[in-house]
Amino acid sequence: MRILYHSVQIVLTNRAGVNIITVSVGVERGELTDRMARTREFNEEQALDAALRVFWRKGYEGTSLPDLTEAMGINRPSLYAAFGSKEALFLRALERYGEGPAAYVDEALKEGDARAVAESLLFGAARLLGDPRNPRGCFLVQGALAGSEAAGPVRRALITKRAAGEIAIRKRFERARREGDLSPDTNCTDLARYIATVLQGMAVQAAGGAKRGALLRVAAIALRAWPEAGGQA
User: Which entry of 41, 107, 126, 195 is 20 to 30 Å from 175 by CA?
Assistant: First the structure.
């Protein structure tokens, strides 16, 4: 017995060529489209948020595809269809982190004076990192726990993201200097690096279990080094 494929039908015949049975496997175009669409019937934004939290907790290399599919509530083909790859999903989650949990950074840069910018950054980080509802540490730091060559693109993306944050702080301080909010001899590069270094240190402390209160105290102490009006930094 042979199975012959003709158009969208499976025809079973005997050696005499007499049809025994015809099984239709054809579907209407609309029905096929509906079936394909049903494989993507999930909330992509919610799935991305779930993936973000897994990467945040475990880092890029510590996160497996089963970890992601379980948290996102989808299967592997749906993950690939929606996001392309684990690396692409991570990069989407990285952007999501900046738009969501770490949105306080962009808001801080809009503050009216340089000290208020620094306060908003430091206290905003303390509140985020010390929130027990969030995974420990900072996504940008936790996600960087990638050492293999295969994870190189992810590691470079995280380095670029952290560098961009420091550059944004420096530019905001340079504007403050031009406006007379900071002393003309303020070294804005060093001041921005100082803030960025404290932020990263707080992230490491939070990953080790530091609570919100302790992080808020670190932020307050860090601000004691803020340059006085007319002083140097």
Answer: 126
CATH of 101-223, one of 3.40.50.360, 3.40.30.10, 1.10.357.10, 3.40.50.280: 1.10.357.10
The kind and range of the H/E element at 167 are helix 152-178
pLDDT digit string (tens) for the chain, length 233 residues? 444 444 444 444 455 554 444 444 444 444 444 444 444 577 899 999 999 999 999 989 889 999 999 999 999 999 999 999 999 999 999 999 999 999 999 999 999 999 999 999 999 999 999 999 999 999 988 776 656 777 788 888 998 999 999 999 999 999 999 999 999 999 999 999 999 999 999 999 999 999 999 999 999 999 999 987 654 45
- 44-94: CATH number: 1.10.10.60
Please answer whether residues 81 and 41 qualify as being in contact, where contact means their C-beta atoms are separated by less than 8 angstroms.
no
Look up residue 117 and give its amino acid: V
Q: Model-level pTM?
A: 0.77
Helix, strand, or coil here: 158?
Answer: helix
